[in-house]
Write a structure and sequence with these properties.
This is LysR family transcriptional regulator. Belongs to the LysR transcriptional regulatory family. InterPro entries: HTH-type_LysR_regulators (IPR050950), LysR_HTH_N (IPR000847), LysR_subst-bd (IPR005119), WH-like_DNA-bd_sf (IPR036388), WH_DNA-bd_sf (IPR036390). Keywords: DNA-binding, Transcription, Transcription regulation. This protein is an alpha/beta fold. The protein has 3 domains: 83 residues, Orthogonal Bundle (Arc Repressor Mutant, subunit A); 107 residues, D-Maltodextrin-Binding Protein, domain 2, CATH 3.40.190.10; 103 residues, 3-Layer(aba) Sandwich (D-Maltodextrin-Binding Protein, domain 2), CATH 3.40.190. Helices cover 45% and strands 22% of the residues. The chain contains 12 helices and 11 strands. The strands form 3 sheets. Strands 3, 4, 5, 6, 9, 10 and 11 form a 7-stranded mixed beta sheet that branches. Helix 1 crosses helix 2 and helix 1 packs across helix 3.
């Protein structure tokens, strides 16, 4: 059994068509068909039910498909590891990120990494931090830029990038702008703009109100920072966000206030990767790159004044 046979088999299974699979693999249809027949003879069972219109996997074919994919992934990982030992980096890096994650310029980080390692294909996926951390634990995502709001699963390492306080954003005409004594009770009477429940900012806000014994109304729910800022600009609600969001150009003109004491309200952005024995060479290199950038940014601030 050869890896090429497994590649052809997976291509046909995914395309459900021999001609399209042959085109995808840059091989003649006759050559691909001959390779599939040889694999079927070796396994002693047909892998596909063929018809003039479409191709379907047999029961054996469905059982073999998962193993074939694992074998191909393992072979690719072996090649990538060997290349890394020789000082080369190749393969695919699947990165997750919470959309518009505060305190991290994800596009700039990925652009720098891609320029330094042109042999690595970078893929990006947007989801909530909790979901992305679980995907890192399951090895379905190589690395993720997330906000850490609690314990992480076993098998996941997190490398802090920035820690920022949460602040209140409101329209200049909103009553909370001029309130002399900002309290959690007064905040509980306001309408909030916030993100979906599995997003880290929402988790921090919900937790703060629970800790202080208050409830609030999230009247407007969005999935991007720009929409949140637009709604606050129009006076439709207030928002509790990490300080870097309040510093965005689009937030200009809004009132920024410190939140009341009584609840731990800090935003912790980090890079999540798998344990050393599971992280791909590309993920490990991204980790080293991000860690070096954080050290370079923090070190001047920590240096003693001359």
């Amino acid at each position: 059994m050869e890896l090429r046979q497994l590649e052809y088999f997976v291509a046909v299974a995914e395309e459900r068509h021999f001609t399209r699979a042959a085109r995808r693999m840059l091989v003649s249809q006759s050559g691909l068909s001959a390779s599939i027949r040889a694999l079927e003879r070796e396994l002693g069972a047909p892998l596909f039910v063929r018809s003039t219109r479409h191709v379907e996997l047999t029961e054996v074919g469905r059982a073999v498909l998962a193993d074939a994919r694992r074998a191909l992934a393992g072979a690719a990982a072996t090649r990538d590891t060997a290349a890394a030992v020789r000082g080369l980096l190749r393969g695919t890096l699947l990165v997750g990120a919470e959309q518009c994650i505060a305190g991290v310029d994800v596009p700039a980080v990925l652009a720098g990494f891609r320029a330094a390692h042109p042999g690595v294909a970078v893929r990006l996926r947007h989801e909530g931090s909790a979901a992305l951390i679980e995907q890192v634990a399951a090895s379905t995502v190589d690395a993720a830029f997330v906000a850490v709001t609690g314990p992480v699963p076993e098998g996941v390492r997190v490398f802090p990038i920035t820690r920022e306080p949460m602040v209140l954003l409101c329209h200049p005409s909103h009553p909370l702008t001029a309130a002399a004594d900002l309290s959690w009770a007064s905040l509980s009477r306001a309408t909030f703009v916030d993100f979906p429940p599995d997003w880290s900012i929402r988790v921090l806000n919900d937790r703060a109100f629970a800790v202080t014994g208050h409830s609030r109304e999230v009247g407007l729910e969005v999935n991007d920072v720009h929409s949140l800022l637009d709604l606050v600009h129009h006076g439709l609600g207030v928002a509790s966000v990490p300080r870097p969001i309040a510093a965005k150009d689009k937030a200009a003109g809004l009132c920024v206030r410190d939140l009341p004491a009584g609840a731990p309200m800090h935003w912790q952005a980090a890079l999540a990767v798998g344990d050393e024995d599971r992280a791909s060479p590309a993920a490990s290199e991204l980790c080293r790159t991000v860690t070096a950038e954080v050290i370079a940014r923090v070190t001047p601030a920590m240096a003693p004044a001359r």
